[in-house]
Amino acid sequence: MPERIAERIAALDWMHLQHTLDEQGFAALPSLLTPDECTEMIATYTDDSLFRSTIDMARYRFGIGQYRYYQAPLPPFLQQLRESFYPELAKAANRWLDQLGQEAIYPTSLPAFLEHCHEEGQTRSTPLLLKYEAGGYNCLHQDLYGDVYFPFQVVFVLSQKEVDYTGGEFLLMEQRPRAQSRGHVVTLEQGAGLIFPTNHRPVAGSRGYYRATLRHGVSTITSGVRYSLGIIFHDAK
Ligand SMILES: O=C(O)CCC(=O)C(=O)O
Ligand SMILES: [Fe+2]
Predict the structure, then answer these.
(1) pTM for this structure?
(2) In the chain, is it the N or the C terminus that has fewer CB atoms within a 10 Å radius of its CB?
């Protein structure tokens, strides 16, 4: 495995990932982060100087657990992750806009996209570290933080399933117009990630593409502690 995370991301089979995103809306990534990198990211949780705010999920009825938004500038490893995923995902984002008959608006690099967020008053960083203990869960939701949003986000599970925790499956719910909703359960090994839609996705129908709305969450952690790293590309109001 290449040392630098940017190289590991560049070495992913993007042809296949792009196809999978178009076909099913989300795409699982192999274990891209090493166990040591996962441990190091988990260890940041207790360093208050790295975070701009901490949310107790129960307080807002978002679920049971806690999460912390990293302060900008992000830790270098996380910055590299966010920047390296963006260009390929921007291609998919623009293709999806095109399929829905909209103008392709996403710039090719993350700094250019963030500049746009900042111009619109979305200046607060959004990547976050989540921690759930036994009994914890994350309600189905969307991570929209203003009018400007990037249509994909990436999550990495940092803890080891069946060793550090049980339960705690990643959930995606797809709501199609005039139809019942479809659920997906995605099992993620330690260091593995998932690319999924922030808001909606185009689905090919008999009369062109229509929009399906997606929400995501996490099922109940039945034992242990589960940490995850959420990479959201737009900044927040
Ligand atoms: O803990 C998870 O796997 C999901 C976290 C989440 O909601 C996110 O990354 O936006
Ligand atoms: Fe989320």
Answers:
(1) 0.97
(2) N
pLDDT in tens, 161-186: 999 999 999 999 999 989 999 999 99
> Which atom of ligand 1 lies nearest, measured to the CA of 216?
7
207 C-alpha to ligand 1 centroid (Å): 34
Name the residue with the closest Cα to ligand 1, atom 9. Answer: 230
Question: Measuring CA to CA, how many Å separate 154 from each of 81, 100, 165, 228?
Answer: 10, 22, 21, 11
Domain boundaries, the chain: 5-232
Rounded CA separation 23/27 (Å): 9
What is the SS3 assignment for 116-152?
HHHHCCCCECCCEEEEEECCCEEEEECCCCCCCCCCE
ipTM of the complex: 0.99
Could you tell me the CATH superfamily of domain 5-232? q2cbj1_9rhob like domain (2.60.120.620)
Contact present, 113 and 225 (Cβ < 8 Å): no
Task: Tell me how far the alpha carbon of residue 118 lies from the centroid of ligand 1, in angstroms.
Answer: 24
Amino acid, single-letter form, for residue 153: Q
